[in-house]
Amino acid sequence: MNRRDDNMDIAKAFGILLMILGHGNGLPALLLNFIFSFHMPLFFILSGYFFRPKPIRQVITGGLKRLVKPYLVTASLCVVICYLTVSPQAALDTLIGTFMANGSTPQAICFPSLPYIGPVWFLLALFWCRVYYTCIKRATGKTLLPAFLISTAAFLVGKYVINLPLGLLDGLCAIVFYAMGDYWKNRLKEPVKPVLLITGIIIWAACIWFGNMDVARFEFSPYPLSMIAAFVGTYVTYLVSCRMRDRLRSLLSWTGRNTLLILCYHMLLVYLPLNGIYTCLQQHGMTHMGIAGVIVHLILALGLTYLHTTIKRLVTHRG
Question: Which of 65, 80, 166, 173 lies at a C-alpha separation of 20 to 30 Å from 74?
Fold first, then answer.
């Protein structure tokens, strides 16, 4: 079994920080294209990197505890927040979004523009992705090509026909990234030819400039180059992670190990009315509210996660 590589945790930290940044308002389109070109595929790829064959029952029970449970808890709290701070209709919309597990609003023919739940869609998608991938791995042995074909079919159905509830299609759509991570696992230490890396970076740059990647909306333009670009972005992030200095490594490694908690707290902050904080920042010279929102969400999400892990550690120690 491979020893856990803390560079992967640092890469996940970059991914979660970029996710929070990408949810800011008023950001330049090119910056958003850069973030969305790889930041969500990165989490599927890195999760696939840590894939280990397990009985399907163990995969399901573990996923229910580690992914579905936090999804339901976070989404339920968001429904309550909407009911108390906005309106019963907003709470109902959030409940529908919870059932659909929409991260955004796919423009399919059937039931387009249904309410969406927000960034925790990833948790249900990852749950299904792991279940699907375990079954495919057991059935075929070789998974990269089957995963690509399945992702392509799911992408076409989700984008042009109908999006299924509970994140069923999102998990299928992302399975190619999960397979990339599993494939990469045994080849991580192999040197990459410079010509391949340069070609990959050129493809990535072209997709940032001309394309549109959004897994939650089933957007993979230009297809299938955007899938290659997502892996290249993840690989470059890993290379940067390997070169981080010691002063930042521990903080980023902690952030990467707690991305699930950070995601859930960020989600709750999206639904909480924080206008008073933004107004205070504006009065103290922060004129760009999009940047102000990112700063507030980042500080609060990290702070709440630190508080959560500290309390859990103290309770566990006393127990």
Answer: 173
Residue 1 lies in a domain: no
Taking only the tens place, the pLDDT of each residue in 191-204 is: 899 999 999 999 99
Q: Is the pTM of this model over 0.90?
A: yes
Nearest of 211, 239, 209 to residue 225 by alpha carbon: 211
Give residue for tokens 């919309």: 93
Please give the C-alpha separations between residue 259 and each of 29, 52, 182, 281, 306, in angstroms, as whole numbers: 25, 20, 20, 26, 11
- Residue-range definition of the domain harbouring residue 150: 6-318
Cα(102)–Cα(118) distance, rounded to whole angstroms?
7
Closest CA to 36 of 204, 190, 155: 204
What is the domain count for the chain? 1
Alpha-carbon distances of 7 from 162, 183, 184, 238, 286, rounded to whole Å: 38, 18, 14, 7, 34
The two tokens of residue 281 are: 């920042």
